[in-house]
Amino acid sequence: MPDLLVELRSEEIPARMQRKAAGDLKKLVTDGLVEAGLTYEAATEYWTPRRLALDIRGVTARSRDVREERKGPRTDAPQKAIEGFLRGAGLASISEAQVQSDPKKGDFYVAVIEKKGRAAEEIVAEIMPGIIRGFPWPKSMRWGKASARPGSLRWVRPLQSILCTFGPETEEPVVVDFEIDGIRAGNVTYGHRFHAPQAITVRRFEDYVEKLEAARVVLDPDRRKRIILDDARNLAFANGLELIEDEALLEEVSGLVEWPVVLLGEFEEDYLSIPPEVIRLTIRANQKCFVCRPQGETEKLSNRFVITANIEATDGGREIARGNGKVVRARLSDALYFWKTDQADLPDLGRLEDSARKLDLDLAKPLDQRMARLDHLGVTFHARLGTQGERVMRIAALAKELAPVVGADPAAAVRAAHLAKADLQTEVVGEFPELQGFMGRKYAGLQGEAPSVAAAIEDHYKPQGPNDAVPTDPVSVAVALADKLDMLTGFWAIDEKPTGSKDPYALRRAALGVIRIVIENKVTLGLSKWANADLLSFFHDRLKVYLRDQGARYDLIDAVISDESDDLLLIVRRVEALSEFLSTPDGENLLAGTKRAANIVADAEKKGTRIAGAVDAALFEADEERALFDSLEEAERFAGEAIAANDYVKALSFLAQLRQPVDAVLDGVMVNAEDEALRANRLGLLARIRSATGRVADFSKVAG
């Protein structure tokens, strides 16, 4: 079957857009083929900084013939109805329609519409101009003389050539002929713009890839990544170094080159006094280069870095390495200045004394000075939630309150909270916002803060995503919970809650952070002290998502969570216990017995039948009633003790012993007795079963 090859070659496509653009091209073309009645076996997209390519295998040579019968109005219908039918069916006159008869409905018109199949290359030529003109670039431009015309082509960068061939492997493929704004599709592409800018004539995908490779273009982006990573590792190793790998940077640099050539650059060792993270970010952000460390080191960096060039230079890359080193040195010089400035006194200390007193800060310490300045400047956190300084005071008060709950020293928690946002006023964080927290920890250590305080300054932001670790040190836990609870309660107070997919303040992430911190650190915390009913419901929704991601059953989660549930850890323990217990024979017994009793009580409630609030043993007439009553008394006592000890499996095992006496009552006693008092008492006895098991879960919501 024929294959289709498409290439759209342009000036440089931004690296961040390449992967999505190639995927968009595949979807648009394959959808267009299918909509036109063609099928295909496989489609693969490729991209480089200067081209998007698409290889579609096993395309049907023609679309199928289509025959459609479209039913119309009765033959005696009004003329306007008949005219509308003709227009819709594309018929010139009613004589082109057929008449069919129905024994019940009489005679009616039918239009038989036949569409002949079309050649695939004709379909491709028809759909491609619309795809290219309407391509969903996030940003695009017009260029050249044609840009003055309304409706002229827009592309991410000037589009330079279009390649489009179609045909089976055993035959010479044809060029699919179409034209857009003076660019006509052909079978010609061009190689590397420096090494091999000459025209290349191609037939199908295999020789397209082969000829591009010979022209210094590696088409496959994953192969470019492997080349860069393998060569960088080997170059580092050969020089006694170890490459510090960075997947995001690797993805980016593979989108900057068509012919990757790895080189080694160098800067002065004096700059190694800067924290490694700052060096790494400086080199990454400014030069898109990888950093290295000496073999065997875990923290210390080397003064050499890995460059990914796009050419094989005649001098072996010495000038490229020298140029990159020059830029890196200039940027590291700035970073060194920022690093030293952040450890020096601020020039306006006299104006910071009020803020220092308010937040119990020591103006002899650089980080305290920065926090005092943050408060003094009145930097806004949110127009309706006050300044950063006011927020820090709220976090400190809340951290002090939470400290005993999580086993932290209250004074250390308050100190950490007071310094938590101080690095927002540092030069390094101003240059690299992603180092917020990390630099605070670094500067706190330099000024002699306790390790737990320094750690909390960095860790209170965690977790920042589902794969991020949660803080575990008690001081960090207290400040992290305080930070997130302040966010949530504050925005709920001003009615700025997430809606649909919109969550500008990352409140879902904050709630999930609270959930993970509490659960993974086994913290028992009653959220209703801070969360109103609406916010508590929000926590429940996020907890459900979290538990489902962990593999918990939907029905068990719903059975355990009630509107009043405010201890997240206990909810999780109950779900785990319920899941474990219901997989046992005792669990099956408990579920069956409880549901049987609960259904009768629920039915009585719907009918408005009176149910005794307290069971009167004096009204028992049958031995089965007395046996169930005694079993309930015992099960409630032992289960209550187990629940108090948070041993829910044990509690459920006691409650499971009710199965036999419940069955005996339901099989041998008329619950809905004619005597109203007897009936109410017996229903009350069954309701007590529901109440006892309800301390662990609402079994009416459990499937099975």
What does this protein structure show overall?
With about 700 residues, the chain is an alpha+beta fold. The chain folds into five domains: about 160 residues, no CATH class; about 50 residues, no CATH class; about 120 residues, no CATH class; about 170 residues, Hypothetical protein af1432, CATH 1.10.3210; about 120 residues, Isoleucyl-tRNA Synthetase, Domain 1, CATH 1.10.730.10. The strands form six sheets. It has a five-stranded antiparallel β-sheet, covered by helices on one side. A hairpin with a 3-residue loop joins strand 17 and strand 18. The longest helix is centred in the middle third of the chain and has 24 residues. The radius of gyration is 36 Å and the shape is flat. The protein starts with a strand and ends in a 10-residue tail after the last helix.
